[in-house]
Amino acid sequence: MSRYADARLKPVTIAVAVLVALFSLSVESEAQTDKTDATMADRVAIGQTLAAFLNAWNEHDARAFALTFTADADFTNVLGAHAHGRAGVESFHAPVFATIFKESHLTGAIRSIRFLTAQLAAVDIDWQMTGAESPGGSPTPLRRGLTDWVMQRQVDGSWLIEVMHNTNLPPENATPPK
Description:
Layout: H1 3-59, H2 62-66, E1 69-76, E2 82-84, H3 85-97, E3 105-115, E4 120-130, E5 143-153, E6 159-169
Parallel strand pairs: 1-6
Antiparallel strand pairs: 1-2, 3-4, 4-5, 5-6
């Protein structure tokens, strides 16, 4: 290749590199704008799922509770017991809603939402429960916990729980481990 041809290629190469960089920034900027716009609607939809989840719990309605989960969801409670699928979540909760949780009242608030993709979000929820009973029938004290959800965006824009892990937190006056 001659010096003349080599000198002409450098500006072309630089121009192509600049155009590629500008195009990448433009696409990234558009994606951020779309993600920000979608995120607000998605945050609202996730809040609606939490409201339906809490309402179903407080009504002790295992079917409505299960409808906040995807058809192939995985649920793990504070004791490590597991249920798979919406039908499994419903059949897991029906007996406890009729016994130890029949007078329970659950409240919750979203601690954080992290969008993993446009279709998946990790959601942490702080919760408190009153009115539960021990398996022996005696009242249990106030319970506090943290629930971790992996949620999946549905075609209609709603969000359902794909994976749920529930954890009891120690009483507020408990001494943290050293």
